[in-house]
Amino acid sequence: MTGSTARGGAPLDRLALAVKRVLPKNLFARALIIIVAPVLLSQSILSYIFIDRHWELVTRRICYIVAGDIAYIVAELDLSPGGDNSRIYQLARNAMQLTISFEPKADLPPPTEIRFPILERVLRTELTKVVGLPVVIDTLSSPDNVLMSFDLGDGVLHVSVPLKRITTTTNELLFFWMVGLSVLLLTVAILFLRNQIRPIVRLTEAAEAFGKGQKADDFKPSGAREVRRAAAAFIAMRQRIERHLRQRTEMLAGISHDLRTPLTRMKLRLAMMGDGEDQEELTRDVVEVERMIEEFLAFARGQEGEQPAETDIAALIAEVAEDANAGHRTTPVEAPALAPLVVTLRRQAVKRCLVNLIDNAQRHAGHVRVSLAASARWVEMIVDDDGPGIPDDRREDAFRPFVRLDDARNPVDAGVGLGLAIARDVARSHGGDIFLEQSPLGGLRARIRLPV
């Protein structure tokens, strides 16, 4: 039973996936479909049923009246066979809109193709029932008239009736009303939904801007009550986060001052001491502690205070590569000429992110290459090296603060474990991220992905 249930559910799952692929992705289009589709579907079904039944009923009654007029003319002709029937023909033309002619000793013409299936079927039924004579209906010979030929025995009676007399225009009017109402409904729904969706779009834009570190002070709650509550909750959350960051920055500023003062005194006392092995070891320890404090404060402070601005990433990469080649490390950094690419970001923060990655690559590799890739949504700064790389299972650990994977390989030049953590913090504060992969050069590839 379980197997049959699973087999029965598979078509439903495929249907659900097909519907999901066809449905639009944005909220506006989905809401519009939810509102308009049921109304249009029900209106179409009801209109089809009504029009079909109404049109056939009205056509049947009109054809019945025409058949009665023709039966009256046939009866009048039977009363005066072979006489002068011009008066009857004139009466039929003026009062009944029937054009009549008689062809003696003639046979019925051959049937023609059907032009109006329902009309011809209903008309033939009513003529057979009311007139009771063999009849051939021709709707092709004249675009504006219906020709009918009756076998009277001694000849053929030809009757021409205007097409507009046996058809009704109420269906066209009803169709145009239906289309007009549907267009009106669609217009009202679009205007209404656009006003309802706009506050949600503004809330999304404000959240994205705040996530990238940009200001969104002009955002105010608007729209429906639920959207206003969500907007108010976002504003309160943003204020709490900004207050927390401001308090953290102020606290770290005090810690920085308190830590620098004793370190400065220790450096002065070491400078006044004589040369010796103990003095050199203590100096290295003080320098190491000072460097750790600087990196820790930089990590904790983040990008506080810097505002995003339009920046040429190609020029930024060239500047960082030039500084790296001019620095104290001997590993060359290759940065080919790149086309200008302007993106809004915090320049100093992204520069520091790139500097940390390049410095990390120079520390372990013999060659470093920096490149740039861009798409419609993302821009990527790529740092490749030919060093030993990082095992797959340790790459996420490399981003954890104070985790140092290079102590055993290079204990003298090992960092304090904050370079990659700071770099990822910068990338994520811009709405992007950093990914570590295998490099085509054989070492490690670091990709900084930022939104355009």
UniProtKB/TrEMBL annotation:
Domain HAMP span(s) in chain numbering: 194-246
Subcellular localization(s) per the UniProt record: Cell inner membrane
Residues annotated as domain Histidine kinase: 254-452
Pfam assignment, any one: HATPase_c
Annotated membrane topology: Multi-pass membrane protein
Reactions catalysed: ATP + protein L-histidine = ADP + protein N-phospho-L-histidine
SMART domains referenced in this protein's UniProt entry, alphabetically: HAMP, HATPase_c, HisKA
Listed GO CC annotations: plasma membrane
GO molecular function, one term: ATP binding
Tagged with keyword Protein biosynthesis: no
Primary location class: membrane
Keywords, alphabetical: ATP-binding, Cell inner membrane, Cell membrane, Kinase, Membrane, Nucleotide-binding, Phosphoprotein, Transferase, Transmembrane, Transmembrane helix, Two-component regulatory system
Coiled coil start-end: none
PANTHER family: SENSOR HISTIDINE KINASE ENVZ (PTHR44936:SF5), SENSOR PROTEIN CREC (PTHR44936)
Protein name (database record): histidine kinase
